[in-house]
Each structure stands twice: as C-alpha cells, then as structure tokens.
Amino acid sequence: MCGIFCYICANNNTSEGVQTLESCRNLLRNRGPNYDSTLWYDSRVLLYGSVLWHQGDSLCQQPIETHRSMLIFNGDIFQLRDDTKESDTRWLLSRIEACPNERDLFRLFAGLRGPFSVILLRKEENRIYFARDAFGRNSLLFGNAESGNMFISSVGGAFPSTEVHELPPSGLYFIELDRVNESNLITLLPWTEDCTQAEQMFGNALEIQLEVERDKLPQQQTAIKSNFNFHRLLANDTSADPFQTLLKCDEVNTVCNQLLATLRESVQERTTYTSPFCKTCMQGQTACSHPRVGILFSGGIDCTILALLMDEFVPATIAIDLLNVAFEKVNRGIVQSTQIDWNVPDRVTGRSTLGELQRLKPNRKWNFVEINVTRRELNEHRKAISNLVFPLRNVLDESLGAALWFASKGVGKINGEPYTSTCRVLLLGSGADELFGGYTRHKTAFERTLRLHLEKNLASQTEDAYQAAFHALGEELDLDWRRLPSRNLARDDRVISDNGVTPRTPYLQEDFIGLVRSLKASQRCYHPLGQGVGDKLILRACAFKLGLTQASVLRKRALQFGSRIADRKQNASDRSTYLED
C-alpha cells in the first residue's frame, strides 16, 4: 500500500494545508515506509505520497511528476505488461499521458484490473482527478473545511472544522482548479448508473453541487451459464454427504472448476506481484527466504481455500504465515486469574484446519502465529486504532478494526516461541460472505420467505415457495453486494496498511466477481442443509473438491466473536466513545 494526500487551497493561504498534512503524515508514512515526499503546484495544491514498494525492479518515487502531470497512486495493477520489470505506477502514468481528454482517462481507469485509489493533476487542463476502484477496495477520504479548502487522503487525522467522508467509489471525479470557489466545482464520470451515494455525500453532507456526466462503458463481465438448482438436486437426497451428490452433477462440477481456476489466477497475482524482500530485509534489499506473503487465518473455509491455493505459488523454501488473533475475554466484576484462556473459537478452528493443511501439503512449512492480545494492550492502542477507523464511528467498526490491526501487526508466538511476521502482503477472505451468502441475514431472508409461502399455499405448491425464497435470498445478496464498498473494505485497508502491509483480497478479483455474480441464488446456497453446509454451498463444494473435507463443513463465525474481541453487552451499532472528538 501507499499513502496519498492532496490539499487544495481556495486562496493563497497554504498554512492550513501544511497543518492538515502534518496531522496525518505519520499515518500516511506508516502505509508507505519505503519512501515519501511532497510537491507543491501553483502555490495552491499540496501533494504528498508515501510508497510501499511491490511492483517493478526498482522503487517508483511518489509523487511522480512530468511536464504534463503529477500523479500519486495507491494500489496494485494486475494487467499484463510488455515490460514485467516496470512499476505499475510508471506504466499507469505512460497510459495517462496518452489520453487526450477526460473521456479517455475515464475509460483507462474503469478498465484497470486490481484495487486502487488515485489522485492525478493534469497541468494543461488545470484539473485534479481522483477515484477509487469500482469495488472500493482501497481507502480514499474527502474532506471539506469551513474555509473552503478541500483535501483528499488515504487516511484521516485531527482536522479542525472539517467534514470528512469516505469517497464513494462511484466513478472518476475531477475538480476544475479555476473554479474552486464555486459551489458546483466537482464533476463525476460514473462507473455505474447509481450515483445516489455520491450525490448524497456531496450535496447533503458537504453542500457541494456534483455534476454527473454519463458515458457508457463496454460490458466485459465474465459469466457462467448453467441451469442446475440446489433444491432440485438435493431436496430428495438421502445420502449423508451432499458434496458427493453435488459433484456427481456435471454442471456443478463444471462451475466448481471454473470458480477454482479463476480464484487460482487471482491468488497467483496477489501472491507473486511483490518485491523479493521481506519486511526486515527490505531496507538493505537483501535476498532472503523469510515469509513475504501470509494470510489472516481464522481457520474458516474462506481463508483456508486461499491458504491451500497459495501453496502453489510460494516457493517451497519459504514458509507461509497463518496469522491467528485472540483477545482476552471481557470479565465484568470477575477477578481475573493469572492464566488467560486463549482458546477462543477461531484459535480452536485455526489449529484444527492447520492440521488439514499439513495433511494435504506436508512439505510446506506453515507458520501458525498465535497473536494474543490482553485487554490492557487493546486499551493502550484503542485510540490510535479508532483514528484509523475514522470516519466510521461505531463499536463494530472499532472491534473489527482492532482485530485486523493486531492480526496484521503479526507479533505473536509459534509453538510458544516469540515470533514477528516479516510479511509485506496479507491475503484476506473479504467478499466471500457477500458473494456466496455467508451471513445469517441471508439464511433469515430465505427461511422467512419460505415459511410464509408454505403457510399460505398447499403442499403441491412447494416449488413456488422455494422459488420465492430464492428470490428473496437473491435480493438480500444484491443488497449486501451494493453495500460492500461502504461497509468495510476501506476501513480494513486503513487499519491493515498502518502496519506497513498490503492487504489483498483474491475473492474480489474482477473475473471471479463476474462469475459468482452470474450464478443464481439457488446456485450459491441451500439453507435447508443447515449452517456449515447450506450457506456458501457452492464454495464449500469447491473446498471439498480441493480435499478440504473438514474445512468445507465449518460454520461461519463473525471475526469479532471468533476472536473474542466483542463485548456482547455492547450494541454493535452504538457510537464508539473512543471516536469522540
């Protein structure tokens, strides 16, 4: 990851921009510990970039400037390039400078493969362009001060009299620097038809008029065409193992093969596109065999599939870190014993699934890193974590942010011996629950609708009841998918990147998303089989096909409960007291 920052002064008073940058510079530098620098443009625009080097045979300094452009880029571009040794930032800049107008720029950014956030100043046009990728995988905040000044940043900070929001990943925005004192200075070229979130943020919260200029993009989504239906396949199945039944169906088998092939490609990109140095050896650029890529590992199905696929692309001489976090249990009014029980649900599941990985890949060294966090340690870092979670403010965001921050820090033990992870890339299972139907609310939507229709109709109309239930499930899946960018991806990016680590999300690869989203709800879940089987059923079938017979039937458990960070006495939606000004 990198840290990017831009401050736009409405007048020539630049001191506010410098102060704002200083308030968040340390957080930006944490994201990019390998290099950082600032640039001014026309005494009104302050740019700052920090770099965490991954791609190219040498580090690309940021901000990067030519006679035509100034660019700061945070992300990973996974497009095939003619020169494999070229930095993705330099590659992008060359493509940008070949674009004669904003429409070509729009098509360039819309066609990028991989997560990104970007700030671009085009000198000839006197414009600043900025954007997040359409799935919102990387953080970018937008702030508007009472003075009329604006800033765009990967992270927040102590910004007095400033309204700050996560930038909706709705498209490519641009600001005319000649119009910074006008109310309608921002234009949006949208990726999608629905710009409601962006219009509400700028129009309602920031009182900035947003001009929307639409342009059609070519549809290039990958799709699966298959007619199978889990209800028809399994309703009358009496076998003890539904996976055996499913994988006897040629259509199901074909879909699993397609999903696994695309996910394997995504894991390969996200595992191999990095520099050949670990975090410790980066400064001296010393070749080493320390772990460079790891995974946030609860032992659940999502991360276990990724771990097994990672084994194919990490050299056999290099270990893979499995980072497993546990928190001391909240004890209200109870005298704490000297011995803390770290066997939280995710620790137990993680150890069990580790055994399955060792059975399937006995020649791989798996570093199961037990990261144990006391309540005292949590409270010591809570304010700092809350600053990273900002502008999100509730208890759930804080709890999940803390779990991810400590896990990605990687300070723990292996077999009782102290260990600190040297990984610069961590894979996450983010997106799998939204894509495949892993949340309890998906099950609830299905079962509630099924029950209502069965109560109204005769038994002969059972098929109609199931169709209605799958329709309700499909609507819930679509709703969750639309909310994903605003719920957790940017937050997770801010929290994890603070440890000088890049989070990568293989389930959120463009082709893989296209495949899964083309499946009907009845081809993703079958809740009558119960939790641990019926939810995310097609993904579980993929896991079973890979040999993960134990992990394929593990129940979904939310991170805040599996790691035991959550206090069940608190309401997840309550505003966190640590986030008060």
TrEMBL record:
What keywords sit in the KW lines? Amino-acid biosynthesis, Asparagine biosynthesis, Glutamine amidotransferase
Please name the GO terms of the biological process aspect recorded for this protein, alphabetically: asparagine biosynthetic process
Does this UniProt record's set of keywords contain Metal-binding? no
Q: Which Gene3D superfamilies match?
A: Glutamine Phosphoribosylpyrophosphate, subunit 1, domain 1 (3.60.20.10), HUPs (3.40.50.620)
Q: Short name of one Pfam family for this protein?
A: GATase_7
- Top-rank taxon: Eukaryota
InterPro entries reported for this sequence = Asn_synthase, Asn_synthetase_domain, GATase_2_dom, Ntn_hydrolases_N, Rossmann-like_a/b/a_fold
Q: Residues in domain Glutamine amidotransferase type-2?
A: 2-178
Q: Which GO terms describe its molecular function?
A: asparagine synthase (glutamine-hydrolyzing) activity
> Could you identify this protein by its name?
Glutamine amidotransferase type-2 domain-containing protein
